Amino acid sequence: MEYNFSETEKKWQDYWRANATYRASIDKSKPKYYVLDMFPYPSGAGLHVGHPLGYIASDIFSRYKRLKGFNVLHPMGYDEFGLPAEQYAIQTGQHPAVTTAQNIARYREQLDQIGFSFDWEREVRTSDPKYYKWTQWIFSLLFNSWYNNDSKKAEEISSLISRLEKEGNQKVNAANSEERIFSAAEWNGFDEKTKSDILLNYRLAFISEATVNWCPALGTVLANEEVKDGVSERGGHPVERKLMKQWSLRITAYAQRLLDGLDVIDWSDSLKEQQRNWIGRSDGAEVTFQIDGMNEGLLIFTTRPDTIFGATYMTIAPEHELVEKLTTSDRRNEVMAYVTEAKNRSERERMAEVKNITGVFTGSYSIHPFSGNKIPIWIGDYVLAGYGTGAVMAVPAHDSRDYAFARHFNLPIVEVVAGGNIAEESYDAKEGKLINSDFLNGLDVKDAIKKTIGEIEKRGLGLGKVNYRLRDAIFGRQRYWGEPIPIYYKNGIPQLVEAKDLPVVLPEVDKYLPTEDGEPPLARAKNWSYNGHPLETTTMPGWAGSSWYFLRYMDAKNENAFASNQALDYWKDVDLYMGGAEHATGHLLYVRFWTKFLHDRGFIAIDEPAKKLINQGMIQGRSNFVYRVKDSNKFVSYNLRKQYDVTDLHVDVNIVENDVLDIEAFKKWREEFAAAEFILEDGKYICGAEVEKMSKRWWNVVNPDDMVSKYGADCLRLYKMFLGPLELSKPWNTNGISGTSGFIRKLWKLYHKLDGRDLVWEVSNDEPSKAEFKALHKTIRKVEEDMERFSFNTSVSTFMICVNELTDLKCNKRAILEPLAIIVSPYAPHIAEELWSQLGHKESITKATFPQWKEEYLVESEFAYPISVNGKTRLNIALSLAFTKEEIEREVLNSEEVKKLLSGQPVKKIIVVPGRIVNIVL
RNA sequence: GCCCGGGUGGUGGAACUGGUAGACACGCAGGACUUAAAAUCCUGUUCCCGUUGAGGGAGUGCGGGUUCGAUUCCCGCCCCGGGUACCA
């Protein structure tokens, strides 16, 4: 019988489901291994052929690890909350839960076809109240925590309160936004509202008034990483800066630990680098410049304190709190006009005008702390309010932005580090000797930085200081489709909903839009209150549920905790995390933050969520084109198109095979082509091709369902891996799929013999030959090595080589074919199960053990040495591997062929690497 | 601009710590089987010159260097992909 993939694949998928083959449970007799795919958001379009790439790789690895004796946790679920479902709900009036459920059903169907080994009993869905109860619970924990910089961890808020009661906040070293210093007595005298406001400045989940990214079209604020190029990542709508009260998470408290943690995890360099840049640590100093004629100082941050003698003016952000005070009356009109304009500019305008230098002089001067010189204070929008102190000492000679500004406004430029040509451009490099700098003269930049900071601290002008680019994460969204924030307001004071009353269930609303007076959609809900007090109306952002889901999989159904200690202790962390690099600064930073937080609060032992992370490359689309002769219904084949005046049209890639157009299908594709005529080459219509993004628009979308029904899941799995290294982006091209399809047929044939026209099962129990053992064992070794370095494409090649060799050897020995089925099974599980059961096994092949390769079958006695002359290979000579260097040298030089080759030329030197190469140098 | 990746046949790619460049597969060409086609099988296939099946030369984006030997290491450039953008 020929191999019938559709029947066999269905059979085994049913078997796996019926027998819960992939159920994972705690088993302390085995080492655990946790393989996780990034949480999919079930979009309406279903899976296209690009999505399963990572899933297939992680599935293969999971199956491999099971065969290697690990207890594997390999779950799947859905990140359901998100903007697209809600936008769709707004348009159609359908509840987002309904459309989301439909999308999930479709996803599941598609996933099942590919034969994944997920433990579906652990499925999680973020919009399930049983799940988001715990998301809300973690939020409550964040609200009830503060970050102690002395102990370097998050602590229960009560420990802070008792300190405030005893000693005030003078000695409290916390990550906070509180500026006042108060004594214990003062604290104890504050009213409840004041205390609440102060504590919010310490809590890790807090309300603050901050400039946020407001997107009017989506009607919500967005986090920094949800904004790209001044427009929203979802939908591409303009984003404005707006001052708003917002729930935020104090991720900045963890900036240094998030940075340090990168050194201990095995993630790709590019991804770590992205996180490092996003966190953006810079080392420098904060220095106060006294303002001339005022009892007030201007605090600046600089990473180049060494250049302080080159500071010829100051610049502050238009939003700086001292703008008002610093502006002299004669400058008032001009300054106010500038500030108003700068504030109203949208993010996009601001970015578009980066090269446009704008600024205004305040009329005030500051006193240089070392030279005592008077230097002017300017306002410029190249200084950002949100970074550092919102003020800089401008050193035009050594900072390109200050340089451009100084040139534009004719401000003095003083060189203080030798090495550049400041008449031409600023010299920003941190190299050279200090000049024009009093006590710093002659020092190197590095030493000068140290010395300046020392001096600044000694004179009480400021402190050495580290700044981070990372901002606190805006957590509230003015949207419907998200987890309600478990907060209510009692006399305007935010209070937590009690743990026993969680979850706060997402209410029904009549419309998924803001109310007439601009309140978020939840304000439409009837009785949106808790014990008579109004509940918070903003919801959590899309990334809330995904920041801890990896923990829930460990114990998905637990109703008493987000996961039991037993499960957390056993499964610990993710061993292999597979997913796209696009989550570098969003999800992957938040999940690390929440993990560290839960660790601090004693709920989990781990401090990083995933030991190893692999980014699978993107699958791009490959479009096909047909060429229509202008003003006709004639189509000319690719290589003849230049002889005509043609328009190129995208053609559905699903009716093209190996760039050859299926003409009949084309005629049926669209009515207008029914009567099309063709100018062929060699009797075929050849299409043009180009790599583009996979999109409906370009008719280049290939979905996995079609591939599965045409070639089978095993073939699709093998082909995807065969395409190239996992991390590389590549266009999806079905041209080569017949290769893996042929491989499956050849594999099947190994276990059969041809009886007339039929294939009949035939496997013998005879002892295999040496050659057969060798073919198998070198395959086992290579595949194992490839697996350990996630080189899936080379494994597939190795299988092909093995099957080709065994076919040549006409091998049908059980002792070879049984282990072969096992090592192939992670890649092609369906056919492997079928072969396994026909070999007489009652249990699934997934319960088998990965075979061990044996050195004895691999030893070679001879090696065909490549003999090269001056590094160029000339011929091969087979020699015993037992030979010493000297013996090899003698054999080679005495060989007739080599003598002929050298034709008497003197040998200058001969390099012999036993088992590798011989190089003769003339 | 800056920071990461990456440039190997007609195509996808292989070559693990410097040691036979092009494994494996697609495509293509020729052949076998077939009334024919599909399927299958066999042979060839980096390029150039040459040819009886001899032989020779070039070759891993470009130019240099280190080395007996470089796709691999170093220096300088070019191109492509991704990230990021006044972060002081």
The overall pLDDT, averaged over residues, is: 89
CATH superfamily of the largest domain: Valyl/Leucyl/Isoleucyl-tRNA synthetase, editing domain
Number of helices: 28
Q: Which range does the strand content fall in? A: 15-25%
Give your account of this protein's structure.
This protein folds into 5 domains: about 30-140 and about 545-615, 3-Layer(aba) Sandwich (Rossmann fold); about 280-470, Isoleucyl-tRNA Synthetase, domain 2 (Alpha-Beta Complex); about 620-700, no CATH class; about 715-855, Isoleucyl-tRNA Synthetase, Domain 1 (Orthogonal Bundle), CATH 1.10.730.10; about 860-920, Roll (Ubiquitin-like (UB roll)). About 35% of the residues lie in helices and about 20% in strands. The protein contains 28 helices and 37 strands. A hairpin with a 5-residue loop joins strand 10 (about 280-290) and strand 11 (about 295-300). Helix 1 crosses helix 26 (about 830-840), helix 22 (about 735-750) packs across helix 24 and helix 23 (about 770-790) packs parallel to helix 25 (about 815-825). The longest helix is centred in the C-terminal third of the chain and has 19 residues, at about 770-790. The radius of gyration is 35 Å and the shape is globular. It starts with a helix and ends with a strand. It binds one RNA strand of 88 nucleotides through helix 10, strand 11, strand 15, helix 14 and strand 31.
Provide the fold topology.
Elements: H1 5-19, E1 32-37, H2 52-67, E2 71-73, H3 83-92, H4 96-113, H5 129-143, E3 145-148, E4 153-156, H6 157-167, H7 184-189, H8 192-200, E5 205-215, E6 220-222, E7 227-228, E8 231-232, E9 240-249, H9 255-261, H10 269-279, E10 281-291, E11 297-302, E12 313-316, H11 323-326, H12 332-344, H13 347-352, E13 359-367, E14 374-380, E15 391-394, H14 400-409, H15 445-458, E16 462-468, E17 473-474, E18 487-490, E19 493-496, E20 529-530, E21 533-534, H16 549-552, H17 565-571, E22 574-579, H18 587-600, E23 610-615, E24 619-629, E25 634-636, E26 646-651, E27 656-657, E28 660-661, H19 663-669, E29 677-679, E30 688-692, H20 704-711, H21 713-722, E31 730-731, H22 737-750, E32 752-755, E33 758-761, H23 770-788, H24 792-808, H25 814-824, H26 829-838, E34 862-869, E35 872-880, H27 885-894, H28 896-902, E36 909-913, E37 917-921
Parallel strand pairs: 1-2, 1-22, 12-14, 22-23, 24-31, 25-29, 34-37
Antiparallel strand pairs: 3-4, 5-6, 5-9, 7-8, 9-17, 10-11, 10-13, 10-16, 12-15, 13-14, 18-19, 20-21, 24-25, 24-26, 24-30, 27-28, 32-33, 34-35, 36-37
The chain binds one RNA strand of 88 nucleotides through helix 10, strand 11, strand 15, helix 14 and strand 31.
